[in-house]
Amino acid sequence: MPQTTQTSVRRRRFKHRLLAHHVPLFVLSAVSVWVFSLIRPLPDLISRITFATAYPALVLLVITLLIGPWNVLLKRRNPVSSDLRRDIAIWAGVLSILHSAIGQNMHLRGRPWLYYVYGANEHHSFPMRHDLFGFSNYTGALSVLVVIALLAMSNDLSLRALGTPRWKQLQRWNYAAFALAAAHTIGYQIPQSGSLAFHWTARICIAITIAMQTAGYLRRKANAGNSTGRMPENPICIRR
Q1: Distance between CA 191 and CA 194 in Å, rounded?
Q2: Mean pLDDT for each 10-residue chunk of the chain (240 residues)?
Q3: N or C: where does the chain have the smaller number of CB atoms within 10 Å of the terminal CB?
Q4: Can you tell me the distance from the alpha carbon of 26 to that of 28, in angstroms, rounded to the nearest whole number?
Q5: Per DSSP, what are the bridge partners of residue 128?
Q6: Which residue intervals of the chain are DSSP H helices?
Q7: 186: Cβ contacts below 8 Å, ≥ 6 apart
Q8: How many Å separate Cα 213 from the centre of its chain?
Q9: Which of these, 59, 91, 80, 61, lies nearest to 171 by C-alpha position?
Q10: In three state form, how does the secondary structure of 62-100 look?
Q11: Which distant-in-sequence residues (6+ apart) come within 8 Å of 191 by Cβ?
Q12: Which of 99, 88, 83 has its CA nearest to residue 141?
């Protein structure tokens, strides 16, 4: 394909992604953050933004993990990389990074290191936090680091440079990001006695993701077994 044609195709594709994906996702994200900031009126802006970005980020991350198994279960084509899944992941990453960056100042204003190590007056022989608060912070920080790495690879240049098998293998770290984000969310919810609606929202999202991923895995495994050409084990089935 001539260079000018490739450039034209890329421009049309970029314009389509911008108008069909990124603008709606931006509006959806902004509205979701605004709604969550109103649902739970916290005392200051930092607390409101930290809370309001958490659940939209989790939901978008969950959606990226549902698209693949959904296609498998409906016997649809499931490409290695699709623009829609990639763009949803980008906005999940943007909200996750925003949540993590602002959240570093929510509880311990101006002292973000105390999210990960004990203060000098807490007198612990092992300085790294090993309580529930520390567990929640470490899992959240690791999750957002994985998300940042995945965002850096969410482009065609990385796909071409790494090759499809290796790129896909690295993108599977999305599962680790989800597991860490789920642990972070539940860890922060455990000490909270109220807000049961938010607790159940997070747990339902986690349960649906696990169920869909399991169903998709079993369907792919069954399809792989059927494609080997081996004779079915049922003795009454005769190959014609």
Answers
A1: 9
A2: 73 90 96 92 88 94 93 84 90 95 86 89 86 94 95 88 89 94 93 80 94 93 72 37
A3: C
A4: 5
A5: 117
A6: 3-17, 23-39, 45-73, 83-103, 132-153, 156-162, 164-171, 173-189, 196-226
A7: 202, 203, 206
A8: 14
A9: 80
A10: HHHHHHHHHHHHCCCCCCCCCHHHHHHHHHHHHHHHHHH
A11: 132
A12: 99
Pull the structure tokens for residue 132.
């529930």
Amino acid at 157: L
At 128, give phi and psi (nearest 5°).
-70, 135
Angle at the Cα of 191 from the Cα atoms of 187 and 197, rounded to 5 degrees? 85
Tokens at 106, concatenated: 């929510």
Distance from C-alpha of 28 to C-alpha of 115, rounded to nearest angstrom: 31
- CA dist 104 and 140 (Å) reads 11
Q: What is the pTM of this model?
A: 0.85
* DSSP 8-class letter at 103: H
Q: Supply 30's token pair.
A: 């902004």
